[in-house]
Amino acid sequence: MVTDKIVIKGNKEGLNVVINMNHFSDFDDMLESLVNKLSQGKKFYRGSTLKITTELKYINEKESIKLKEILFDEFLISDCIFQDQEDSSVKLFTGIYEGKTKFLRKTIRSGQSINYPGNIVIVGDVNPGAEIYAAGNIIVLGNLRGVVHAGTNGNEKAIIAAFKLEPQILQIGNIVTRSPEDNHKPQYPEVAKIKNGNIIVEPYLENKYI
Amino acid sequence: MGEAIVITSGKGGVGKTTTTANIGTALASMEKKVVVIDGDTGLRNLDVLMGLENRVVFTLVDVIEKRCRLKQALIKDKRFSNLYLMPTAQTRDKNDINIKDMLLVVNELKEEFDYVIIDCPAGIEQGFENAIVGADRAIIVVNPELTSVRDADRVIGKLDSKGLDRHEVIINRINYEMTKSGDMLSVDDIIECLAIKLIGIVPDDRKVTISTNKGEPIVLDEKSLAGLAFKNIARRITGEEVPYATLDGSSRSEMGFFASLKKMFKGI
Predict the structure, then answer these.
(1) Are A80 and A110 members of one domain?
(2) Alpha-carbon distance B154 to nearest alpha carbon in chain A (angstroms)
(3) How far off is chain A from B238, nearest CA to CA, in Å?
(4) Is the CB of B156 inside 8 Å of chain A's CB atoms?
């Protein structure tokens, strides 16, 4: 798997760099390994045309400019073309009952963003301004006050649970809700899930707190 | 080898510079060798607060650009001979300093002084990066306002990601009456939200404004509550355990409930 992060292929049109963004935590991480990889044959790439095939939705404009700058300045390539890779490999994450899970034993603070293609358990708080994205469930043993999105690739059976569920924005699959504007504070742990096409929030064990 | 402490907050106007000047002065009065560095290039204030504005000749930028030696830029305080100020340039901006140079300066000062206190500018851009690069620990100043707590949270996250994980918080400008009536965030609310160790609570005090305008740090005023609070913080920085004097006169327990439980279990 490790070797599949970045693949460089040559064909009659030129050189094609295939980047699998799913294997990188962010753009900078990808850039670093791309530069490492290209540095091995620096002279070889001089004056060549590189076609970069990747899922372009993960790269914003600023980042693509940065990428081009590095390729032009450091590797002296003559041209660079971006090509979008159709996201055919993404399938529904099905491990919401049993599957890979990330455990975070810290408070997630404003400005921090966690993205994981599985379940996420946070032993700590999620503060306002923080963002959590998981393909599966999100469980927070603490206050949940940030932005949360469970089931990012479409699993509508995913749940979001927290000791105090007060998110700014809560999303499961494709359904988004905003927190209500009454200053009602949750008194007990709650679970958010989709029922009949709507997100509902209920005590984590029905009937326990009523 | 001394210790470098950065005073930061994210939000502006919460009292970083005041805190820097006062902790520096308080530590100096405890016979420590202290240097305070102004990190706010382009909007320098620390020299004014310490009453040393007229003595600035060379600055941090001159040191970095090798127009003078490090020692030449240091300004000795009027009151304490073991307290120095490293001013910064007013006519330049924060991008004129890079983290490599700043790290060199801080490390050189650490060899000479017991405490190097860095006043961080507001924001999380280049100035912030420069201020935190050489620091061994961070003190975050917050006001009992939601905006300040939000920004502090962001800054703590930034510090964590830079590997600076020794941090404590000062709650500045608390008004006991307003906290009691529920109009202001209380100390417990803030600590709960930020999940961070408390190192001091400074009450709101009109005398701070007066002392700023005079260029005399408030810790020199024996009667001021805010001055006393800064002195206590300085003592806590040196590792001393000082009980929290609450603003209504009774004393707040030094440790939280869980901390005292932990201590009990450790003792067994």
Answers:
(1) no
(2) 5
(3) 27
(4) yes
Are B153 and A125 within 8 A, CB to CB? no
Look over chain A and give the mean of its residue pLDDT values, rounded to a whole number: 86
**Chosen from A29, A106, A110 to mutate, greatest number of chain B CBs within 10 A:** A110
Verify that A111 and A73 share a domain, yes or no: no
C-beta separation of B142 from B170 below 8 A: yes
Confidence class of residue A90 from pLDDT cuts 50, 70 and 90? low
> Of all helices (H) and strands (E), which one includes residue B170?
strand B167-174
Tell me, yes or no, whether A56 and A113 share the same domain.
no
Per DSSP, the residues of B185-234 read: --HHHHHHHHT-EEEEEEE--HHHHHHHHHT--GGG-TT-HHHHHHHHHH
Which stretches of chain B score pLDDT less than 50? Answer: 249-255
Q: Taking the model in full, what pTM does it have? A: 0.73
- Please compute the mean of the pLDDT values over residues A135-140 and round it to a whole number: 96
Q: Which of residues 169-198 of B touch A (CB under 8 A)?
A: 193, 195
Lowest mean pLDDT among A134-148, A177-191, B235-249: B235-249
Where among A58, A84, A110 does a domain terminate?
Answer: A84
A109 and A170 fall within a common domain: yes
Name chain A contacts of B160, Cβ cutoff 8 Å: 106, 109
CATH architecture of structural domain B3-267: 3-Layer(aba) Sandwich (3.40)
In a domain, A128, yes or no: yes
Retrieve residue B18's tokens: 């005041």
- Asked if the Cβ–Cβ distance from B154 to A109 is below 8 Å, we say yes
**Contacts of B73 by beta carbon, 8 Å cutoff, 6+ apart:** B57, B58, B59, B60, B62, B63, B86, B87
A95 in any annotated domain:
no
pLDDT band at A5 (very low <50, low <70, confident <90, very high): confident
**Chain A within 8 Å of B150 (Cβ-Cβ)?**
yes
**CATH code of A15's domain:** 3.30.750
Beta bridge partners of residue B7, listed in sequence order = B119, B139
CATH of the domain at A163: 2.160.20.70
